[in-house]
Amino acid sequence: MPFFPLDILTQRMGLLVKGKSSATFLILSVLSLILLILPVKMKKNISEGIFSFTYRPFYSLSNRIGELHQVYQNNRILIEKVTRLTLENTRLKEKGLENERLKKMLDFKSQSSFKLIPAEVISAEPGRFPGSILINLGEKDGVKKNMAVININGVVGKVSEVLVGSSVVQLLFHPNCRVAAFDQRSRVQGIVKSKEGIILDLDNVPLEEDVKPGDEIYTSGLGEIFPAGLQIGRVIIISRENNSVFKTIKIKPAVDFFSLEELFLIKP
Amino acid sequence: MPVRYLNLSRIVNIILLLLVVVVYQSLFSELLTIRQIKLDLPLLILVYVGLTRGPASGALFGFLVGLLLDLFNPSFLGLGALIKTSLGYLVGSFKDTLFLESNVSKGGVIFLSLALNDFFFYLFSSGLNLSYTFFVFLNYTLLSGIYTALAGFVFLWYLQIRKAQSLANSYPTKL
After folding, report:
1. Class of domain A115-171
2. Which residue of A has its CA nearest to B97?
3. Is the complex ipTM higher than 0.95?
């Protein structure tokens, strides 16, 4: 079938001048022409009036949606920024605290009569009470076995094993660690070792010796590993076991073994 | 004027279709534009109204749609209304002839309608500048016409499928 059959077209053209359709068409065409010949200012006013109740509500809605989307995007960016800044802030606070500690250590080092080698803890032995830690200095840094290890608060332990770039430090409360010590007040001698984890014991102190709670315990230097005068801890409990000729003396360490970071090795 | 002429459902339908035009122009026309080639949905709807409702509805819808689109060019208020009134009337005049034809021919009507619309609009709005009119025609109207005709073809094909399905459902088969 042809797209525009001529006979149908002619028939339709005949109908174009008849009927209400034609009247509708004529009226609307005249209306359009009237609008067309109006002054420009009047046209603009009419357009503005019709635009305000047809398109404007939808454009406002579209703008609102756009603004919400923009707010959402900005929100995501800001959350990311805040997270980054919070992490940075935490990191800077840590650096600030580290700086303070290092300054104290620097003062400590300069005041100390020992030759000190600064070291850092790399890792601790896994377990509830880690008996040893790994530090970042080894054979190539001049570390030797049995070097005493301290921090700003007191005795930490001794080097038990030396590797090329790192070393194992046996902590004071390791079962195998022994330190010759004395009571600073009464000068009573004893051996510090660990029997129950974090609380140390001052052994070999006869019953009649003068040791009281609160007394400070220091290294005596008799063991040839730890130099004399290094703080070990403070006496907290004194008791006596049945059939024993020695006192049972409990010492709280001066060092916090659960927050070891910067250490010093004492060069012999 | 006979009451049946002022068919309420027809008026509601036309208002709804005009709303579709307004929503489309406000919110979605940019989304459906491909590299400056626009989908002329108002004209597509105009052709649909003309082919399904006849010349009177086509002319009325054309006038209203033309007026709505002229709001974006206040200086030419009435020009788009006049052209679309004529187009709506012309397309509507072929209602009984073309409505039962294939979708391809309807696609052709859509394309021609768009071509005529653009040709006359740019001719009169440019002050009868033929070279400008042909420039716009060749660079924008042709591709926009193809795009709109294809969209119309797909839309009419979808309507046919739905109509066939509803007819199949309304005639129960006897075993």
Report:
1. mainly beta
2. A8
3. no
